[in-house]
């Protein structure tokens, strides 16, 4: 496995050897030490202050300070997002900035940006108000002008009428109008403004009811939406002018304007004053526009300056905060001059960690160096596998079931091959496999660009598993060639007939295309795929049991070897290993024996003659021997192991009872927290019940798991038949018409059905079934999966994590 100086083993079969380490660090070099260990990323710290709340820890003030700087950076990021800017990724991270200087800089920039935003909001509010005022002046002026034009037209008609008609009634009316008292004439007031168009009808209705119809409302629709000064959003509005009489009506109108959010603006009837006010407002708007543009340009420049350094600052603040968070996990010794750290690291990283400690001591000018001390513990270490971008996705599939126990056999080594192969058995079509392969090759070629982008949930999942899908595509092409299916169409790779005369005895590779379309195609494929599924299933289950042997051998557990591995191999292969042998013999000999009859009567009537179902000499005696071996394997699994475990526990406890009282090699202040001195009691009944359950589960599971592998046959058949239906009943049916439109529709339906059903739904279905076969049928034979991951303190993960 390698020693402390040989470097990482890069061995996926077993996790890296780990060791529990204690670091005693002088306070003056503690910050640099943690920083260098974070750069190295190979040390997982244990929290030695778990009983303390975050506010009771030593460096709570520093973390609060970093959190405040992080808040300011989030404020800058939000402002950049609103301005349509993004932080620059070209900023350099070479030189570290003093945190005090950074804190002052961030505070000054925040104050300046808040002031700019406040001034801009105030100017924008004034600009929006003046814009609305200008529109009110223009539209209300048009209303008054049109009303005056109507009055002038009516007066001209009246004068024309006076010159042509001299009636008594007209004379009386004219006399009455001339002699009317001027003091009795009513002077109308008016209020003008803007109201939201969606509220205009309700505004008019309630205004009429509140004043009992004693008002006159005139509205004019604005063609374009205007920015509301209060809301700051674009709103479609109408200009209104309300004519009223009396103070009571005026007060009601003002209250209704406030209730409906209508903005009121003054208006004068004098045309000269109107033009004068409009010119003043226009000039003021031009000045405000210039001022706002200058302010926005200054704000944009400031945000660009921030954006150039944002990633650097953000990384520094996160790094600083993470260092203080780790420092809060350390214990202060009694002298208040050293910090005591405890954690896990790989054995190969010992020299690298010690070099980091020495460098931190030199850089901080400390008189005392840090102490690296390996602790002895009974605690189970974390699990650490060195993976790359290819193997990491397969390792995630295993970790989703459960993290491997420390140094137990890792199934991902075999999953890299078996997972895509079992998928391909269900998905076998080399046309569909090429589609999968091309899609994943696109993701792999552009992985550098896509890895820096934010993808959707589904796309992110596909991108993270791109190498798994690539392997699935490659294996699907291989099995598709074996099945001889290209979008359900067979290809004749080699002409082996000349007319009716065979040139070769058998078809050279894969399935003979002559089976396609024949009456016996489905029975033949069913028989072949069903038997093939059993063969692969029994082979994979045997591999799982063999892995349990290597686990027991590695951990020195001879009881599991002799009383678990051996009887399990005997039981499984006495029944289903024998079935696999019969399948192979039948294929090789071309026998017509009924394997269902052989297996059923092997249990019901083991002594009866086989007659036509005999495949080889001595088969009857061999079957009786296998049956007795399978029956003997069940008590072999059940009874000896609990008694041997009890005996082993008693011997171990008897040996430990004579241990030295002062067996610990550590002083009290640096005693590892994980050491436990209590002996666990051995519950024989609990162990026996557990063994009984395990035995029953294996015996029944041998049958159910073998049957479960028949899903390979079922899904392969379903995929082939679906593909054939889409080809025959959609594409060929449409191609039978002479119409281009019909052919285009048929081709479109075929493409959408192939992509949607076969390349998406069927891919997901086959993926999930292959996942189940690995998790349940394969891994339950040997995989414990009760470990926990190794999470080292590393700055490399800071850029990927959000606050």
UniProtKB/TrEMBL annotation:
Tell me what topology the record assigns in the membrane.
Answer: Multi-pass membrane protein
* Membrane-traversing stretches: 421-445, 466-483, 532-550, 562-585, 621-639, 740-761
Alphabetically list the UniProt keywords: Hydrogen ion transport, Ion transport, Membrane, Transmembrane, Transmembrane helix, Transport
Q: Where in the cell is it found?
A: Membrane
- Pfam families (alphabetical): V_ATPase_I (PF01496)
Taxonomic path: Eukaryota, Viridiplantae, Streptophyta, Embryophyta, Tracheophyta
The record's PANTHER family line, in alphabetical order, gives:
V-TYPE PROTON ATPASE SUBUNIT A, VACUOLAR PROTON ATPASES
Q: What does this protein do?
A: Essential component of the vacuolar proton pump (V-ATPase), a multimeric enzyme that catalyzes the translocation of protons across the membranes. Required for assembly and activity of the V-ATPase.
Q: What is its main location?
A: membrane
Protein family membership: Belongs to the V-ATPase 116 kDa subunit family.
Protein name as annotated: V-type proton ATPase subunit a
Gene source species: Salix suchowensis
Give yes or no: UniProt keyword Magnesium: no
């Amino acid at each position: 496995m390698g020693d402390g100086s040989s470097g990482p083993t890069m061995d996926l079969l077993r996790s890296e050897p780990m060791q529990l380490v204690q670091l005693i660090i002088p306070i003056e070099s503690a910050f640099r030490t943690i920083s260098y260990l974070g750069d190295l990323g190979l040390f997982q710290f244990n929290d030695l202050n778990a009983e303390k709340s975050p506010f009771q820890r030593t460096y709570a003030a520093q973390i609060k300070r970093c959190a405040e700087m992080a808040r300011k950076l989030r404020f800058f990021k939000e402002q950049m997002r609103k301005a349509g800017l993004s932080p620059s990724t070209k900023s350099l991270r070479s030189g570290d900035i003093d945190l005090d200087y950074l804190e002052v800089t961030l505070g000054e920039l925040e104050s300046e940006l808040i002031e700019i935003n406040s001034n801009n909001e105030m100017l924008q509010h004034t600009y929006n108000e003046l814009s609305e005022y200008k529109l009110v002046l223009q539209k209300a002026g048009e209303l008054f002008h049109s009303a005056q034009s109507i009055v002038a037209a009516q007066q001209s008609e009246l004068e024309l009428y006076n010159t042509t008609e001299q009636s008594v009634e007209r004379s009386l009316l004219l006399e009455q109008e001339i002699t009317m008292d001027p003091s009795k004439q009513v002077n109308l007031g008016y209020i003008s403004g803007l109201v939201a168009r969606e509220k205009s009808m309700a505004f008019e209705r309630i205004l009429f009811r509140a004043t009992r119809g004693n008002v006159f409302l005139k509205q004019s629709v604005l063609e374009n939406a205007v920015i509301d000064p209060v809301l700051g959003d674009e709103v479609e509005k109408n200009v209104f002018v309300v004519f009223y009489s009396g103070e009571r009506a005026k007060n009601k109108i003002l209250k209704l304007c406030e209730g409906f959010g209508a903005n009121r603006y003054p208006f004068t009837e004098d045309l000269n004053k109107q033009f004068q006010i409009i010119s003043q407002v226009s000039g003021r708007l031009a000045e405000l526009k210039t001022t706002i543009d200058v302010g926005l340009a200054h704000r944009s420049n400031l945000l660009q300056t921030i954006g150039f350094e944002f990633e650097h600052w953000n990384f520094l603040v996160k790094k600083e905060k993470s260092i203080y968070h780790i420092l809060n996990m350390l214990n202060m010794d009694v002298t208040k001059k050293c910090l005591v750290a405890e954690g896990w690291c790989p054995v190969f990283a010992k020299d690298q960690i010690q070099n980091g400690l020495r460098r931190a001591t030199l850089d901080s000018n400390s008189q005392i160096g840090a102490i690296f001390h390996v602790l002895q513990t009974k605690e189970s270490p974390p699990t650490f596998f060195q993976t790359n971008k290819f193997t990491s996705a397969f390792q995630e599939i295993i970790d989703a079931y459960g993290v491997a126990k420390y140094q137990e056999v890792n199934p991902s080594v075999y999953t890299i091959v078996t997972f895509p192969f079992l998928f391909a058995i269900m998905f076998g079509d080399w046309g569909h496999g090429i589609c999968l392969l091309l899609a994943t090759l696109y993701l792999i070629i552009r992985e550098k660009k896509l890895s820096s982008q934010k993808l959707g949930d589904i796309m992110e999942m596909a991108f993270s598993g791109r190498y798994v899908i690539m392997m699935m595509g490659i294996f699907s092409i291989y099995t598709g060639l074996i099945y001889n299916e290209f979008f359900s169409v067979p290809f004749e790779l080699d002409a082996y007939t000349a007319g009716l005369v065979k040139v070769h005895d058998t078809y050279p590779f894969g399935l003979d295309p002559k089976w396609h379309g024949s009456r016996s195609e489905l029975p033949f494929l069913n028989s072949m795929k069903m038997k093939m599924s059993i063969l692969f299933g029994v082979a994979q289950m045997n591999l799982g049991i063999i892995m349990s042997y290597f686990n027991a051998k590695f951990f020195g557990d001879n009881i599991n070897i002799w009383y678990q591995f051996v009887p399990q191999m005997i039981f499984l292969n006495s029944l289903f290993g024998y079935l696999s042998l019969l399948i192979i013999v039948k294929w090789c000999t071309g026998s017509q024996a009924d394997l269902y009859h052989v297996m059923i009567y092997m249990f019901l009537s083991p002594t009866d003659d086989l007659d036509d179902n005999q495949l080889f000499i001595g088969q009857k005696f061999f079957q009786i021997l296998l049956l007795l071996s399978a029956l003997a394997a069940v008590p072999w699994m059940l009874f000896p192991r609990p008694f041997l475990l009890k005996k082993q526990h008693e011997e171990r406890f008897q040996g430990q009872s004579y241990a030295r009282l002062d067996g610990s090699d550590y002083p009290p202040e640096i005693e590892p927290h994980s050491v436990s001195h209590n002996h666990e009691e051995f519950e024989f009944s609990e162990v026996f019940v557990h063994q009984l359950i395990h035995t029953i589960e294996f015996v029944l599971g041998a049958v159910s798991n073998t049957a479960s592998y028949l899903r390979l046959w079922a899904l392969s058949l379903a995929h082939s038949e679906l593909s054939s239906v889409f080809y025959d009943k959609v594409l060929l049916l449409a191609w039978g018409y002479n119409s281009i439109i019909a052919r285009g529709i048929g081709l479109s339906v075929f493409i959408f059905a192939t992509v949607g059903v076969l390349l998406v739904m069927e891919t997901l279905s086959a993926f999930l079934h292959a996942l189940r076969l690995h998790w349940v049928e394969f891994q339950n034979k040997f995989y414990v999966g009760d470990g926990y991951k190794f999470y080292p303190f590393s700055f490399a993960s800071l850029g990927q994590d959000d606050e």
